[in-house]
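FW: tagging you since you asked about this chain on Friday. Here's the raw sequence from the shared folder, copied in full. Didn't touch anything.
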Amino acid sequence: MCLEMYETERKELVDILIGKGISNQDLINVLLKIERHLFVPDIMKQHAYKDVALPIGMGQTISQPYTVAFMTQELDPRPGQKILEIGTGSGYQAAILSGMGARVFTIERHTDLYNSAMKIFDRMNLKIAARCSDGTIGWEEFSPFDGIIVTAGGPTVPVNLKKQLAVGGKLVIPIGDKKLQTLQVITKKSDTDFFTREVPYFTFVPLIGKEGWKEK
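HL: got it, structure written out here
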């Protein structure tokens, strides 16, 4: 597929996302710029600009574009803010956050996906800090974070992530069972006071780790 076709399909996808309520103009600009087809397996590139999740190996997916956009809009990252992503996956969400000017820290538990994402970041010259580890325990060394986004569904909100969130910051995380989750948008008012808003009916791969689901 030629570059012009990708550009046309990307614009059409963004128009669909706008129609679904994505209104943050900085986010829209980045969605128009970041090439999603670079983050999917070659066999899936023809589907890269459909508003669907796609398999990327290791039982994982690149999230539906609307889900990525919605979660990013809820997080509302600003230039210079430190954002922690749990679940690097393909690297697409991290690239969106970086494109919006955030200082991105991302954690992936699957070595193959971590290595693949790092190659894409290098190729795109994205300055993203990444490590291969258990994301449910966070990245205390660089905390507190202005925002934390979790791209897998957990049974409960990891305590470590709440601790590593800066006062005034937001944590966006899907919580529920392994089939269906509610997206929780948690604002940290103080070290002991959190405000939670819930958005129902999301489906993510399971959040595996010490403070998530246990690996079989």
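FW: Strands lie at 54-57, 60-62, 82-86, 103-108, 129-132, 145-150, 165-176, 181-188, 194-202.
HL: agreed, and DSSP finds six helices and nine strands in the chain.
FW: great, closing this out.
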